[in-house]
Sequence to fold (375 residues):
Amino acid sequence: MIALTRGSEPEALRKMRHWRLADQRRKRLQNQDPPSIVGYDVARDTLYEAQEHRCCYCGDLIRDKAQPVEHFRPKEAVDRRLYPDDPLRRLTPADPEYIDHGYWWLAWTWENLLFSCHICNSGYKKTHFPIRGATLPAWRWDVGDEHALLIDPFREDPMDSIYWRPELPALWDPLRPADSIGGIWWVPDHKGVKGEKTVSFLGLRSLKEVVTDHVRTTVWPNVKGIFRDWNLGQRTKARRRWAQKENLLLGPGRRFPAATWDVLQFLMPDMVQQLPIPRSGRRPPNWAPPPPVPGLPDAPAGVGASLWLDILACGDHGSDADKDALLLNLCQSGPWNIDQLRDRLPILSPVNLKARLARLVASGQITEGPQGYRA
Ligand SMILES: [Zn+2]
Fold:
């Protein structure tokens, strides 16, 4: 796992959130069955590019991007157990640690979405979300208030807490690395509780074989000559050779960049420090996580909360009849001039708003006065 940085939110997701979230909230407030949580996958392509085609959790390259978009905080059910595979402890909906509603209001929030492979998403992370202390109350976006026990690679650097090490370090002989590397297994280890929970809930130990194979077949053959040059004091030559290999081992779309860097760091710490070889995904020291994207824009003055939710839920996808009904509803609290109406009905283009007003005035449902339009 490496630190990831998001680009700006895709416009399609912002629109989807306004529409779906308003609809979701309205149904829940009215105690109706909420609509299914869909549509967030409009963020997939942007996430896939931001993550350089890798799974946010295991770090493997994903060639087929038709994978489900992952919610860091689960969108529906949440399983709060503190150990992923505790056979004595199976949570049921009656258990206080099991929360069935999930973080539905974060389902279309840019900061809650990641791109992960099918195995990490459906095989390991599933609906797990262990926390310490109280859960985030519904309709709250400031996730920093909740003490999550899993590492969010968009908010913190996983390489501070998770690192790869040889399973049998006693067997490793620094004088004969070329001979002894073949007998070493590489395994993930952790520092701190979040590191431990992230390794166990995401099943990162199951990567032992594939990462060890990656080290043997890709990392080691490419770096052993560089190590030799470095150890012989041929620093310029080693630098030049590393410059040719860096992109091959740590560049965009390369597999397991965190494990690759940790292996280099373990085998040749002075070379990693002096070249230097920067840690994959490392952020500048003054980096801070971006503030959460707000869920829904506040209602403009003079528009009630319920009407505003209806306007957002209608969106520009709504039917003509729904849009007329919203305009009439709005004009009942008028008069509003055209600019005020435009601010209060942002789902209509200026041209569409004018045409709709003209039609409703002609049919006598709306009157036009010097102060503006009123129903
Ligand atoms: Zn994965």
